[in-house]
Design brief:
Two copies of one chain form a homodimer. Chain A is an alpha/beta fold. Chain A has 14 helices and 17 strands. In chain A, the strands form four sheets. Chain A has a six-stranded mixed sheet with strand order 2-1-3-8-7-6, with helices on both faces.
């Protein structure tokens, strides 16, 4: 079974937007074990679209289109596919009713061209759009499966996951479920190394390693006749992977390190405050990305100059003089100082040289000290990262969160 | 003249990465006035790549490939293109010398397979890779222009701009130069409205509106025989656009609002400190995204609870009680308080409800007060934004920067 992706939209050809739908759909097909050999982008032009469709029909079992389902005249994906595959277009009343409801709900008038969205190929499988107005659909003709999804990513992704993937399960031979084991403190290749033998020995579930900024994860995917059977296959393997990766696993099927740390602090009734130099507020920003963080997060101080370190955080002048602003000693006094100043149980201090300038032989660009104060004492780490300002800062913020997790949340 | 883009890489078909190179190249071709009718992605498979190349040669004047120029066996873009167009492959000694130098510089051994990157189609135009190891190249054969660029975006983008675009100038009938007029405080459609008559009346230069997160910009693009002639065409139109948009223009050909504000503060010898509640450190993070910001940025306080507002920033208990933490009065006391506490000339205070929870009828989710303290007084704005937590926070941080610009830097 192989699938070909066709994105329809002149705005992609002009470079106004990037084709993220292709990634969304390809990832899902990869999980299903369906090969993708070609992705094509074509504009809102019926002749060129038809050419691409015929080419795809010639070489693929499944054709999945994204875009061109909207209300305007240049939205012509459905009409063109119906013509190529000899299907009649009919008005789908339930879709029309949904579109009418949608406009009534947002209190705007429904212009007549919106009705076009409810015209679908006859006898197709309708994908109800809960995230916008244009329904998607699927049909089988001439031995090919044809699926149509809307272009906007916030509609395309959920419809693909919720409607198109279940449609594809029987073609892929069952139901597919994945679980993600999130890891910090281990590179992707080191993770792969630890999992290598297990990965090699497995057919179902499969285990795949992925890298993200400053972290990585292992995705375990099982194929079975239904969700329950897939979960039963997954459980022991997820446990094996977690055991092999040990303490470097920060969570399974979780959103982020900041979410895990936040949940842990909330459960233990602990409060947090942070003092940042080189990360400049990034750690505080990431902690407050999590809704509801005011339950455990009291606040932070960005001390971008020595005066603020001394005056607000109480870092000693002698410390700054003897060891410098970028030093283990300063990081520790920042961590303890911010906890005291803000009255928090846990304090974090980060000081370093984010670059590009400012490095010396003794203290190179990319050097960062990170300290966590808790229960009367500090744990401190020294890291050096040479991948540029953004990566240095992100890695330092992630390391701080991970240190809280290891020190306090276990 | 029309071009077709072919991205070569199985990792795109698997959904591991998104094809941003296609956007980069399409944007540039759009600036050059070269049409793109198709973009295709194909894996590291010689037969399927050849099929796609033949298809492209059948319908396009220019073929641009990205990816598949690396040292490993599955990098086969050059070899396949050379075969299809009947070109011999030869070793390009200057490229080999550059690759050897590169490995010597980073102190790693050059494995023999790296030599493969220096083999290029005979008599091609070599694009020197200053950002990595694999050179790109271009040749003309069978009436088609064929250009090859490396896949990694940090190599593809600069090589496209610096090497491929100049190669394409004569095909596009000259040299193309763009200037970007960056705007905050005006939506994209309002900007288009103000520019409408001018846009309609222009053929060369052209004016195009673009939207970004919380801001927008107008790109003015001129086509001429050389750079100097293009700049001469641009100058009066850029001035006209800037006049029509007035105070909402924060810069022309600048990196970001935070860069403009930073430069302005540095020039005036002023220092800055910020106090954030709902933005949680985001403003501080953005200010410190700019290298060298320690010349004007002293630091910030994220006051995520009332105690920190009172204790560190000196917001009065009565103010919090009478008006609440989210109020004009609190924002102003935060702005003045952080300037005093950190000894800065300019202080910013931001307090609001980022959501999703926490809103009331009187103070809805998305309500933010932003205050700038300078020279003994405060300027304050109240904004309401309903596009979710991230957008509320981003818009508040941008508004604060823009208020500094309008208040102090004019």
């Amino acid at each position: 079974m192989n699938a070909e992706l066709i994105a329809v939209g002149t705005e992609i050809l002009l470079g106004d937007i990037v084709n993220t739908d292709a990634q969304t759909v390809s990832q899902g097909l990869s999980e299903l074990g369906i090969d993708v050999f070609y992705q094509t982008v074509v504009g809102d032009n019926p002749d060129r679209l038809e050419r691409v469709i015929r080419e795809a029909a010639d070489r693929a079992d499944i054709i999945i289109t994204t875009g061109g389902l909207g209300p305007t005249l240049d939205d012509l994906t459905k009409e063109t596919l119906a013509r190529v595959f000899g299907k009649e277009m009919v008005l789908h009343e339930p879709s029309l009713a949904r579109i009418r409801d949608f406009f009534a709900r947002i209190g705007r008038e429904m212009t007549p061209n919106n009705e076009k969205q409810a015209w679908l190929p006859k006898d197709c499988n309708v994908f109800v759009n809960e995230w916008g107005t244009a329904p998607g659909c699927a049909f089988e003709a001439a031995g090919k499966h044809v699926l149509m999804l809307p272009g906007p990513p916030r509609e395309c992704e959920p419809m693909f996951r919720k409607c198109a993937m279940p449609y594809l399960y029987p073609l892929a031979g069952g139901c597919i479920v994945s679980r993600n084991i999130r890891v910090f403190g281990l590179g992707e290749s080191a993770m792969e190394d630890r999992l290598h033998d297990l990965m090699e020995s497995m057919q179902n579930p499969t285990i795949a390693p992925y890298a993200k900024i400053s972290e990585c994860y292992a995705r375990v995917t099982a194929k079975a006749k239904d969700e329950e059977a897939a979960q039963a296959l997954l459980a022991p393997v997820v446990q094996q992977v977690a055991d092999l990766l040990g303490d470097d696993v920060y969570g399974i099927d979780v959103d982020s390190l900041e979410q895990v740390v936040g949940d842990g602090l909330r459960e233990r009734g602990l409060t947090l405050a942070v003092a940042e130099s080189c990360t400049g507020g990034l750690l505080s920003k990431r902690i407050t990305d999590v809704p509801g963080c005011s339950e455990y997060y009291l606040g932070g101080v960005c001390s971008y100059c020595n005066e603020v370190k001394e005056k607000i955080l109480g870092v000693k002048g002698e410390t700054l003089k003897a060891y410098g602003a970028v030093s283990q000693q300063t990081a520790e006094e920042m961590a303890e100082g911010v906890a005291r100043a803000l009255g928090a149980d846990v304090g974090v201090g980060i000081t370093g040289i984010a670059g590009p300038g400012g490095g010396t032989e003794e203290k190179p660009t990319g050097l960062v000290y990170i300290s966590v104060y808790f229960d009367g004492g500090c744990t401190t780490r020294r890291t050096v990262n040479t991948y540029g300002r953004d990566r240095v800062r992100n890695h330092a913020a992630s390391t701080a969160l991970d240190m809280i997790r290891r020190r306090i949340l276990r």
